[in-house]
């Protein structure tokens, strides 16, 4: 009989183990540390304090029950078999110690579940409040703080990118202006180069003309020398002819004088011939001198003109050379300026590219943070759903225990528990949980516990106390029944 009762007594704990697994005893300090780490905000922040009081009341209630349950019963020593009584007492003590250990373990696990439910309800309330806040902001069109920060950062980046774009447009305009100036300078350089080529070609032609003029001058000088030689030769020939004519005239005069007697006078004729020849010689000499002078004058003027043209060509060549050198220096300076501007433009493009890449990285990082926040929100929603599922499971379990307690109460009728509301405050409603243990119509034990009516743990605490009372009552009944059987 005791074995069957023992098996029946351990039925709820075995089903509890099958439902929730093997028990793990947890000390009260761990609950205190967990509860101290829990956030104080939330919907159930005011229900954090009743649990240690309930635990202390339950623990303070155990020694009374154990002391009362261990009070010796008056039995007649002549009817008691001490060996069997000692065995029964040992079995009872072992069973009682096991039941106390299991009950303590169940109390610890139940307290841990209560703390966990309280923490989950706090988290649930906080998440619900945050979710409602997010929903209200979404319905009102108000972005959250992360969205505000993201939008502010995006606006700042857009302003910076607009400023950078304006600077880039300005630098591009300056680059275009410099490119136009460079193209104009290149055009001028091409024109000056063409002018220089034309001047060099003119200089070459002028040099050729100068060389031709020099050759002509040399040829004319040679002609002049030959003409002077010819004039000298003609003079000598003329002098010789004059001498010959004079000699011939003298001989003729002599002959005429000899023959004067016989011939007429030829002196006048000779004089006329001499004068005629002298006139012809003077005329030829004058013509030769005039022709020589005219030729010499023409050659001198031509040489002078050629010298002037050559001097002007040299001046133009020197001027073109100076202009070419100045333009070359200007082109080199413009090339250096262009290279510096191109290098500066490349550096600015690299800098702007790095800044744009940094801005894109910041945008990507902010988008990643937004995605993480969305994932975290989804995770909180999933945890909230899981907590709701756990709460529903706990509600089902509580309903199951309630049914078990109601069945046990209706079967044994050894304990009565009821709620007594005590309206102490207007804002808060408290409930007095009274546990009354009766035996043969006499009140054996009375336990009162005041809890807030809106606390979610009032019924759970009542359930624990009621379970302890039922177990102790059944244990005392079994002991009494075993003693009665031994007496029989």
List the helices and strands and how they pair.
Elements: H1 2-9, H2 11-20, H3 28-37, H4 50-69, H5 82-140, H6 145-258, H7 267-412, E1 415-422, E2 430-439, E3 442-452, H8 458-487
Antiparallel strand pairs: 1-2, 2-3
Helix pairs in contact: 3-5, 4-8, 5-7, 5-8, 6-7, 7-8
Flag low-confidence runs: 1-80, 413-431, 451-456
Rg, please? 71 Å
Distance between the termini: 15 Å
What fraction, in percent, of the residue positions are helical? over 70%
SSE ordering: HHHHHHHEEEH
Overall geometry comes to rod-shaped
Count of DSSP H/I helices: 8
In which order are the strands of the major sheet placed? Answer: 1-2-3
* Count of distinct structural domains: 2
Largest sheet: 3 strands, antiparallel
- Compute the average pLDDT: 69
Walk me through this protein's architecture.
By secondary structure, this protein is mostly helical. It folds into 2 domains: 216 residues, no CATH class; 203 residues. The chain is built from 8 helices and 3 strands. A 3-stranded antiparallel beta sheet has the order 1-2-3, covered by helices on one side. The longest helix is centred in the C-terminal third of the chain and has 146 residues. It is rod-shaped, with a radius of gyration of 71 Å. The N terminus is likely disordered. Belongs to the intermediate filament family.
């Amino acid at each position: 009989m005791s074995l069957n009762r023992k098996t029946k007594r351990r039925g709820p704990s075995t089903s509890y183990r099958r439902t929730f697994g093997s028990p793990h005893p947890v000390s009260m300090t761990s609950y205190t540390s967990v509860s101290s780490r829990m956030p104080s905000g939330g919907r159930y922040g005011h229900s954090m304090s009743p649990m240690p009081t309930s635990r202390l009341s339950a623990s303070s209630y155990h020694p009374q029950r154990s002391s009362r349950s261990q009070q010796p019963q008056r039995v007649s020593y002549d009817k008691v078999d001490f060996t069997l009584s000692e065995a029964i007492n040992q079995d009872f003590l072992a069973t009682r110690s096991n039941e106390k250990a299991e009950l303590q373990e169940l109390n610890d696990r139940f307290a841990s579940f209560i703390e966990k439910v309280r923490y989950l309800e706090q988290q649930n309330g906080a998440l619900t409040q945050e979710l409602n806040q997010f929903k209200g902001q979404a319905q009102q069109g108000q972005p959250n703080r992360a969205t505000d920060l993201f939008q502010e950062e995006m606006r700042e980046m857009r302003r910076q990118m607009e400023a950078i774009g304006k600077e880039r447009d300005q630098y591009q305009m300056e680059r275009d202006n410099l490119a136009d100036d460079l193209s104009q300078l290149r055009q001028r350089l091409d024109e000056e180069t063409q002018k220089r080529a034309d001047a060099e070609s003119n200089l070459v032609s002028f040099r050729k003309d100068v060389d031709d003029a020099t050759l002509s001058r040399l040829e004319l000088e040679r002609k002049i020398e030959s003409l002077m030689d010819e004039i000298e030769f003609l003079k000598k020939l003329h002098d010789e002819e004059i001498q010959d004519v004079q000699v011939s005239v003298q001989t003729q005069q002599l002959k005429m004088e000899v023959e004067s007697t016989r011939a007429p006078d030829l002196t006048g004729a000779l004089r006329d011939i001499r004068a005629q020849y002298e006139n012809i010689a003077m005329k030829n000499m004058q013509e030769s001198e005039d022709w020589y002078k005219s030729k010499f004058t023409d050659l001198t003027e031509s040489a002078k003109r050629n010298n002037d043209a050559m001097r002007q060509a040299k001046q133009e060549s020197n001027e073109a050379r100076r202009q070419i050198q100045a333009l070359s220096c200007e082109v080199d300076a413009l090339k250096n300026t262009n290279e510096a501007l191109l290098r500066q433009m490349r550096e600015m493009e690299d800098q702007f590219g790095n800044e744009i890449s940094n801005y894109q990285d910041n945008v990507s990082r902010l988008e990643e943070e937004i995605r993480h926040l969305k994932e975290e929100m989804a995770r909180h929603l999933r945890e909230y759903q899981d907590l709701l599922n756990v709460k529903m499971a706990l509600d089902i379990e509580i309903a199951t225990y309630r049914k078990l307690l109601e069945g046990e109460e209706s079967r044994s009728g050894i304990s009565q528990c009821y709620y007594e509301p005590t309206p102490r405050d207007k804002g808060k409603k408290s409930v007095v949980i009274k546990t009354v243990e009766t035996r043969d119509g006499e009140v054996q034990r009375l336990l009162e516990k005041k809890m807030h009516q809106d606390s979610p743990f009032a019924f759970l605490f009542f359930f624990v106390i009621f379970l302890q009372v039922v177990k102790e009552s059944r244990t005392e009944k079994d002991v009494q029944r075993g003693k009665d059987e031994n007496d029989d």
